[in-house]
Amino acid sequence: MSLTRLLVATGNAGKLREYREMMSDLPVEWLTLKDVGLYGMDVEETGDTFVANALLKAQAYSQASGLPTLADDSGIAVDALNGAPGVYSARYAPTEAECRTKLLGAVAEVPTALRTARFVCLIALVVPDVVTMYTEGRVEGAISYEERGTNGFGYDPIFLLPDGRTMAELSSEEKNSISHRGRALKKLQPFVECLVRNA
Amino acid sequence: MSLTRLLVATGNAGKLREYREMMSDLPVEWLTLKDVGLYGMDVEETGDTFVANALLKAQAYSQASGLPTLADDSGIAVDALNGAPGVYSARYAPTEAECRTKLLGAVAEVPTALRTARFVCLIALVVPDVVTMYTEGRVEGAISYEERGTNGFGYDPIFLLPDGRTMAELSSEEKNSISHRGRALKKLQPFVECLVRNA
């Protein structure tokens, strides 16, 4: 099983950019769903955990493409909301901007000390007939009172880091080094390298 | 995360011997549940797939020991019985000998051409806070009409290979090279090596 070609199963431009930036050292041809003609293929995220959804996507697109496939599921878990929106983060409201507004509203009455939250990212890699693996990355923070910053995407502008900046106020380089997706990818990287070497 | 110590979470002496024989090249200290004081700890195999059960066990013992942990779930799937006994293979009857007798009885009326079956093995490796992975191995065969051979364990004496021998008529070296567990381990080995190198 050659790993010179690897499918990144996301239609999200922000995620795709992060993947490419972080794994750019590897001698791998990164393919998108569009590259392999699967852009229109929808995989229902019916799992009730991040790992279940990441595996569902990686398995489905890997089976459809025959390629080693990376997929992730990620979201934001707010303690005052018992972990919500969690696996429903991307479907919490119709647009990313509305998701942020809805979440700010949901915690409007929650005092500062109890606004703790975390970004969680599960990345799954399925290499057909060889191995299935996944890693998890987390970043701890809190929900801000208003949007700040223009980098990143999704909930980044309302996610406060311990240093007082929101995730959207980091440069993409800074974000990649501390983000949930960055941490999950960093854990996965040695195994991708291992696959490339054995290809 | 050092991988110089690795827990093999099985209480089955036959499986443990196979693991040690097959992975003996690696510079790893293989620990058993007994070695880490977890021999009495029971993990309920509540999953309805081999992979779910292998993950349940690897996660539970890894959490209890803090060690990188290998666990497997395996069994025999008989086509004429719609895949039974499957994940229930080890609990099909009280003893291994009774399991074989019961299975021979269950397919007693099934003609030779329809006695096809396969051994399936899922091996899960959990490295705490790093990665979870699993591989699958299969071997295709058929259910014999009577027991033959004294090597191996479990259903080996009634599992006919394409060459006419039962799995229990193979030497342990032959069995390791073609068995479901051997195939799953062979797929996993490069990643264990990768972990050892990065330890």
Secondary structure topology:
2 copies of one chain form a homodimer.
Chain A: E1 5-8, H1 13-22, E2 29-32, H2 50-65, E3 69-78, H3 96-106, E4 116-127, E5 131-143, E6 159-160, H4 172-178, H5 180-197
Parallel strand pairs in A: 1-2, 1-3
Antiparallel strand pairs in A: 3-4, 4-5, 5-6
Structure write-up:
2 copies of one chain form a homodimer. Chain A has 199 residues and is an alpha/beta fold. Chain A has one domain: Alpha-Beta Complex (Maf protein). Helices cover 31% and strands 23% of the residues of chain A. Chain A contains 5 helices and 6 strands; from the N terminus they run βαβαβαβββαα. Chain A has helices at 13-22, 50-65, 96-106, 172-178, 180-197; strands at residues 5-8, 29-32, 69-78, 116-127, 131-143, 159-160. Chain A has a 6-stranded mixed β-sheet. In chain A, a hairpin with a 3-residue loop joins strand 4 (116-127) and strand 5 (131-143). In chain A, helix 4 packs across helix 5. The longest helix of chain A is centred in the last third of the chain and has 18 residues, at 180-197. The N and C termini of chain A lie close together (6 Å). The mean pLDDT of chain A is 92. At the A-B interface, strand 5 and helix 5 of A face strand 5 and helix 5 of B. Strand 5 of chain A pairs antiparallel with strand 5 (131-143) of chain B, so a sheet runs across the interface.
